[in-house]
Amino acid sequence: MATTFNDNYQVKSGSSDDVILSVTIGYAQIASTSVTVDGVQFTAGGKDEHGNIIQPDANGNYPDSFSIVIGQNKDLPSKTVLIVSTVERVQDNEDNTSVQISCSGGVSSKTFPLLTEKIMTKGETLIYDPEIQIN
Question: What is this structure's pTM?
Answer without folding.
Answer: 0.94
